[in-house]
Amino acid sequence: MMFSGRVYKDDKFWLAEIPIIDAMTQGNTREHALEMVADMLETMVNKKELQVEIISSSDDKFEIGSQDSNALTAFLAQRKQEITGSNDLEKEYTSYPMIQKAA
Hints:
Blueprint: E1 3-10, E2 13-18, E3 23-27, H1 30-45, E4 52-56, E5 61-66, H2 69-84, H3 89-95
Antiparallel strand pairs: 1-2, 1-5, 2-3, 4-5
């Protein structure tokens, strides 16, 4: 599973946001902000040895993935339930076209 985020400069910091999980972090440089995204997600998922990959896809977009797609899927479902109170992940997939289901 992969989902998307956006990184942009705001005054003196670079902000990185992931709308689908309603999360944001920052860094002093673009690269630092993307490193902070990986660190934030690894901390939020809280699974030993999880490694999150950040793939820059354009100037302001990035993709988030991991070899452990089950951990990311479970985290996404939990986070969406926390944010919306909903437990219907399939409905959430249709609301967020940036999600790509793994084959």
